[in-house]
Structure formats: C-alpha cells, structure tokens
Amino acid sequence: MKLASTIMIIGSALLFGLFLFPLWHVELQAPQYPTGLGMHIHIDGIVGYTKHDINNIDGLNHYIGMKTLPTKDEMWEFTVFPIVVGGMAALGVIIGFFGFFKNSAYKWFMGWFVLMTVLGILGMIDFNAWMTDYGTNLDPNAILKMTDDAGNPLSYKPPLLGSKDILNFTADSFPSLGGVLLGIGMALTFISFFVGKKFNASKS
Amino acid sequence: MKILKYGIGLVAAASLMTSCGNAGKDKSGADGALNKNNAEKVYVAPGEHDDYYAFISGGYSGNLLVYGLPSGRMFKEIPVFSQFPTNGYGYSEETTPMLNTSFGFIPWGDSHHPDISQTEGVLDGRWVFINENNTPRIARIDLETFETAEIIEVPNSAGNHSSSFVTENTEYVVAGTRFSVPVPQRDMSIKDYKGEFKGALTFIGVDQETGGMDIDFQLLMPGFNYDLSHPGRGKSHGWFFFTTYNTEEANSLLEVNASQNDKDFIAAVNWKVIEEYVKNGGGTMMPSEYAHNVYDHHTHTATSTMKKEVRTINPTEVPGAVYFLPTPKSPHGCDVSPDGEYIVGNGKLSTDLTVHSFTKMEEAIKNKKFDGEAYGIPILNFDDIHAGSVEKAGLGPLHTEFDDKGNAYTTFFISSEVVKWKLGTWEVVDRKPTYYSVGHLTIPGGNSRQPSGEYMFAMNKITKDRYLPVGPELEHSAQLYDISGEKMELILDFPTHGEPHYAAAIKADVIKDNSRQIYELDENTHKHAVKSENETRVERNGNEVHIYMSTIRSHFSPDNIEGIKVGDKVYFHVTNLEQDFDVPHGFAMIGQKTSELLIMPGQTRTSVWYPEKVGVWPFYCTDFCSALHQEMQGYIRVSPADSDIELSWSLGED
User: Fold this and answer.
1) Which of B186, B187, B341, B364 could serve as a FRET partner for B407 with CA atoms 20 to 30 Å apart?
2) Out of the domains of life, which is the source (chain B) (predicted)?
3) Which of B457, B485, B514 is the last residue of a domain?
4) B530 and B485, same domain (yes or no)
5) From B631, which residue of chain A is nearest by alpha-carbon distance?
6) At what angle do helices A2-13 and A177-203 cross, to 10 degrees?
C-alpha cells in the first residue's frame, strides 16, 4: 500500500506543475508570420509567446470582428481555476498520505480521480464554450465578413485539440508542459487505485 | 501561380543567357566546365541566409549598403551622410541634426571606407564606422538597428580620405586628411603652401560602452597628402601607418608635380606614445569649430552640438612619436598583414609593391639609424626596413588584403586585375582579371588578425558592358572570387550602388541575432510621442500647430482635422503604435515640400508642413501596411488666414 500511496501523492502533486507551466498553447502560423504568433494558456491567464504576441493577435483579429483576448480580470475562470486545481492537488496529496495508515484509502484514490475527471471535463466544456463564443460571436461591423460554402458566417474558433486552417492562418492547439503533467498525474492517480486494490487483494 | 510560372521562366531565361554569354566570349573569367559548380557556390536558396554581411560604401551616394555574400544580394541602404527621401532621414525634424556641420546643414556626403569595430584584433560586430571625404566627418552605424547613430566632424581636415580605420580594440577610429590646408584656416596665398599647410591626423577615442566618439588628439603633420592608413596589430599594435604622396608639396597640377619624387613616405605613428603624452597634459588646445551629432534610440531624436576646441599635437615635440618610411612612387593603399609584421605600400605609379618589416623598423629606430629628417621627423633608411618587394606584379597597385594562409591579394587599377602573392617569399601565385579597373578589394575580416580564407571581392571603377546597357551613367560592378584554393576563381558578378570604395565584411553569425525587430513603445521617450490613440490631439500655439498623431493598421488618429489656416506652421508628430515586426507606416501630405516619413513600429517622426492653399487636403500612408492600406488616409481642412474656424479633430465620427 506504500507504493500505491506514493504514486497517488506524486500523481496529484504533479497538478502543482500547472502553477509553473502553461496548461495549453495555441499557435498561429501564416506566410506573414513565418515564426508564428502564439499564446500560452495558464490556469490564471493568457501570456503571449513574446511580449507583443497578444496585442498582435488582437490586432489581426479585429479585421474579422473577434473580441480581444481576455485579461485575467475579464474571465472568472482565471480566478477559480487556480483554487480548484490547488485544492484538488492538496486534497490528492492528503488522501495519498492517508494510504500510509489506512489500507482501504485506495478507494478514495478512485473517488479523487473521478471527481478530477468530472472537473476536467467541465473545464474543457467551459473552455470550448469560450472558444466558440470567441470564434463566432463577431462584431457585426467587422471589416471582413467571411462566409462558408453554405453562406453561413465563417467560424474562427480555434480547435480544442489539433490543427485547423482558418483563412491564411493555421491554428495549432496542443497541451503544454503543465497540461502534460496534469495528464500524467491523473494517470498515476488512476494507477494508484489498482496498485492499492491489488495490494489489498493479495493481503486478504 | 502565374507569378511562380513567370519566375521559373525568368530563371530559365537567365541561365540560357549565361550559357550563351560564355560560349560567345571569354569574359566569365572562369573555366566553362566549372560554371555549374560556381553557380552552386553562390546560390543561396530562397529563404536561406547568406554566410556573410558585406557593408559596402555607397561612395558619392553618401550612404552605406548592406549586402550578403556569397549571393551578392543587396538588403539595405543605410542613409549616413546624405538626405534619404526613402525614409525621411535628413528631412524629418528628428534626423536633420545628423547632417549639421560647422558649415551648417549639408545634404550630401561622399562616403568611403567602412570598418567594423574590433576586440583583440577580431571583428566584434558592434559598430561600423565610415568616413565622409568632402566635409570631413566620421559616422558610427549601430549594428543592432543598422542605423546611423553618431556623426562627428573632423576639424582642420580636408578630403577626409585616410579614414576610418579602427585600432584592434577599437580604442581609436582614425581619420587622416588627404588635402593639407592652412591650420588654422586663414586668408593666405596658395603659393605659400610649402611649409605653411598642415596635414591633420585625427585620433577619435571610442567609448567602449556606448560607442560614443570624441576627438582625443590631432597630430599636425607636414603638408603632404595622407592617402590611406591602417593600424598595426599584434606585435605592431600601438602603431598606425599612413601612406603619403605629394611630399613635393605641390599646390597645382599635382598629377605631374606630385609625381616627381622617387620615394614618398609611409608615416609610422606610435599613438601609444602620444596617448601617454596627452595623459600628461601634452598638446595644445586650439580653438576650432566642429559638429558632434548623436542619435538617441529612446528619444528617436538626434542632437547636434558644436564643439569649440581640439587638442593638437606637434609631432616634433613628442620624441619617438612619428617616423617616415621611404616608399616608392606615390603609394596609395597602406596595408598591414594579419600578424602585424608587414606593412605594404602600394606604389600606384609603379609596377612593384614595397613591403616594410615592422621588426626591422623597430630595430632601426632602436639603433637610431636615420637617413635625415623632414620637418624634424626622422626618416628611416629604406634598406634597413625593407622586407621585400613583389616585383613586376602588375600596373598601378592600389590595395592589398590578406587571407588566413599567408597570402596577400593586391588590386592593380591599370592592368585591371587582382594578383595573389605570398608573404615572405614575395612570389606571385596567381592573377585574375577584374571587370574593369579595380579599386579596393575586400576579404571578410580584412583589417583584422583573423581574415577569412573563403571569399574576396573586387570593387571596380569601370563597368562598361558587364550588364544590360542603361545609358551613359552606370552603377559600378563588383566581382566575387572563391579564394579557398591555390588559384582564385571568379564566381559572381554583381552591381553595387554609388561608387563603392572600401567594404567591410563579417560572418553573419556574429551580428544577425543582435538585429532589432521593433522599437519598444514603452521605451519611447520622444517628447512628442503618443502611447495610445487616447493621447492623440491637436494643439495650437500662435500660428504653430502641433498634431500628435498615431498610426495603427489601418488608420491615422486623428484622421479629420479642421481649423488649420493658411500661414500656419504645422508639425505632424506621428507615432507608429504597432509592435509587430516589419509593420512600418508611412506619412505623406499633398504639396508638402519635404519627403515622406517612414515610421518604424514604436518610433516617432516629425514632419513640418506650411499650408499655403485654402481647401481640404488629404494625407495618406505610403507603406502598403495591410489589406486596408488603401483606406489609410485622412483630410485636413485649410481655411483662410483670417478664418475663425475652431481647431477640431476626430476619428471615426460622422
């Protein structure tokens, strides 16, 4: 059970990585931007690859009527996410420690994992909803009003995961180091349940 | 796709023409069988970068050109000593002080010899210095911004030609006078030249942090013509060598009268001795007037200060400071080998090259073996210092550069060729024609301890039939040679701009990552800058109107202005709010009697306009900045002088 607890502690502690490294990144490439423009999405805000990337993305997006990228104050998520992530990470570590004293704690490992997965899915739904709004809720007086083949206004929503061509840009959206650590951490907590379960089964 | 097809068509046509040309006449200077190989040597694929930067003097354009090697592609023309309507240099309020001199505003210059700053005898790529010949000045170009950062005028000088070469730690950038003049200037008979005129050799100290230039001292030499110069390096560091001609001190028909002496001199100047002398309070402060112009990249503004005195040194009062090395036949180029041992005098009226030995020179000085003196300056005995001569090498030797394998390359103007010879044995190894009548040549790192052994290029004075004919007035031609083998190989022919005299070249890696992309708006301390559209406004002060304007894709703020009157003096202070690489905006006003402004991201530029006609007059952006560039325009209403229309301005209001 010591092994399961250690895995659980390491797994949930990896969530603290989100306070150091970005969760996600979206990168835009175009002929005029050979080295790309990009943003790191942290749990507490969006930061440009370089000092001026956010302004330059906003500057380009104004042609098609997109809103400017939200600052920390403009999105409640950037305040709530750090609390949720920090809370869950701390909770995971505490539950992990319980495992040293109580063999049945492995069930709580699964409980933590399920809760974190639900929160994660909610987070993704929320993120996707924001991106949909960002990419489709356009200024009616936009300079360029583009339509798709069916005549509907073109959506500029970046992909949640993967690559997508939008006009002259290719948008890449992938997890960053913080997101990768989150994934590994959650996988470890999942594994810790089975390690704990196996330990308990071998004991009885 | 059409463009692409035409592009391929052009390339195909070009290669056809090349092969025809080669079959028709032997002007390629290369073996036919090697042509494909040579094409590959200079081919830099689209999107790839060249290996070297070459800073080629723009000669009488007054500017400095940036080229790439081996492709021979031109990347930029940097305005230095001349007004440049392309971007408003010398027209905008911020940059006109750069062209101020003791003679007032001078719109033009004749730039000559670029030289790159050094540390321990190796090019460090901080700055390029270049001299102006006509109204003697030295400029410093910053290699982060590739813009002229400073210009200092050189007093008591005329024909600032033996310039602007740097010592091996950039302690000094040195400027010598080609024409001797009365010092100080005065009303006197030209016939009284002999003994009365002086030749000033000016040592300009360089601040190692900022690059800032300040004249440390001026050596007032006899009234010869000081033609070219180079610093000692390595063992000869601390010395500077200047070729002289007209030691006859003729003041008329110099082509005959200055060619009579069998030998002129190379003046060897021990600047360390003089530096010490100056430190101990030596020299005389002479009243003088010369401009010192400095550009600040935070205020985006140049200031011009008039200096009032200069420290002059009488060489006879500093023992051990100057010696004359007799050198045959009006030597032109004065070149020092990478190890600092050999000083080459290119006797332009001779067929031979004379090489002096620094070691022998030191020995002769130590033994006080002199062969008389001139104006109190000891003359060394030719045989005591002579290392060797390259005999019958060609006609009219002008300049020599060195490679990294102990070879030297000398240009011969009259016989129109570059001759490769060996240091120490003085034997000729190879010769290749140039097209035509070569002046200077450049090897990257030429004036340093570490020249490159890859490329050499010759800059010619005569072009004739090298390119498609374009009427009587031609750009000059340059040829690039591969010098990595025993024999030189001509691999590229490319046109240059103005009359390139010298060029300085450097490995691209040393500087390319330092090149700036934008100016930070939050570091802009221009006194008329605006940091956002909220700050844009129009202010009237009597008949002076200041328009604080901004640009961002794709509009001016404000773009409608009323209340301007005939007789006003209108200042457009335009700040480019962009912070994205390569998004300049331009500004042009109809009927304005000055050039456009080209404003880099984060920069502020000011243009003055005198409205003379009543009406509504447009202005627009001159740089195709975005898809909506054509929409980037505005109007100014100009009312009669006695009108009572209130000043007003707006953006996006109906």
Assistant:
1) B364
2) Bacteria
3) B514
4) no
5) A143
6) 160
The dihedral through the CA atoms of B99, B104, B106, B111 has a sign that is negative
At B540 the three-state DSSP class reads strand
Write out the residues of chain B at the interface with chain A, using a CB-CB cutoff of 8 A.
518, 520, 552-553, 578-580, 627-628
Residue B316 sits in the same domain as residue B195: yes
A158 contacts: CB under 8 Å, gap ≥ 6: A26, A131, A135, A164, A166, A171, A173
In B, which residues are within 8 Å of A64 by CB distance?
none
Residue ranges of alpha helices (H) inside B195-328 are 254-257, 271-279
| Chain A residues with a Cβ under 8 Å from any Cβ in chain B | 51-52, 55-56, 59, 63, 143-144
The answer to whether residue B22 sits within a structural domain is no
Q: Do B601 and B575 belong together in one domain?
A: yes
Cβ–Cβ gap A63/B628 under 8 Å: yes
Maximum distance among all Cα pairs of chain B, rounded to whole angstroms: 90
Is residue B449 within 8 A of residue B338, CB to CB? The reply is yes
Of A51, A55, A143, the CB nearest to B628: A143
Cross-chain Cβ contact A56/B553 below 8 Å: no
CATH of the domain at B617: 2.60.40.420
Q: What pLDDT digit, counting tens, does each position of B359-369 carry?
A: 999 999 999 99
Angle value at C-alpha B491, between B487 and B495, nearest 5 degrees: 130
The model's pLDDT over A52-106, given as tens digits with 9 standing for 90+, comes to 999 999 999 989 999 999 999 999 999 999 999 999 999 999 999 998 998 888 8
Whether B401 and B532 map to the same domain: the answer is: no
Same domain, B448 and B466: yes
Cα B223 from Cα B200, distance rounded (Å): 9
Q: Chain A residue closest to B627 (CA)?
A: A63
Sheet holding B648-650: strands in order across?
B597-599, B585-589, B615-620, B633-639, B560-565, B648-650
Nearest Cβ partner of B580 from A56, A63, A143? A56
Q: A-chain residues within 8 Å CB-CB of B578?
A: 59
Answer with the one of B514, B548, B567 that is the final residue of a domain.
Answer: B514
Q: Is A184 exposed, middle or buried (0-12, 13-18, 19+ CB in 10 A)?
A: middle
Q: Are B638 and B586 within one domain?
A: yes
B580, closest residue in chain A (CA to CA): A56
Residue B532: give the domain boundaries. 521-650
> In the β-sheet with B263-270, what is the strand arrangement from edge to edge?
B225-231, B239-245, B263-270, B322-328, B377-380, B370-374
Q: How confident is the model over A144-186, as pLDDT tens digits?
A: 888 888 888 888 998 989 999 988 899 999 999 999 999 999 9
For residues B330 and B258, is the Cβ–Cβ distance under 8 A?
yes
DSSP E strands in A43-131: the ranges are: 45-48
Its ipTM equals 0.85
B165: phi then psi, degrees, rounded to nearest 5: -95, 145
Give the pair of three-digit tokens for residue B338.
Answer: 């990478």
Token readout for A114 is 């399920």
Q: Which domain holds residue A95?
A: 2-203
Co-location of B525 and B485 in the same domain: no
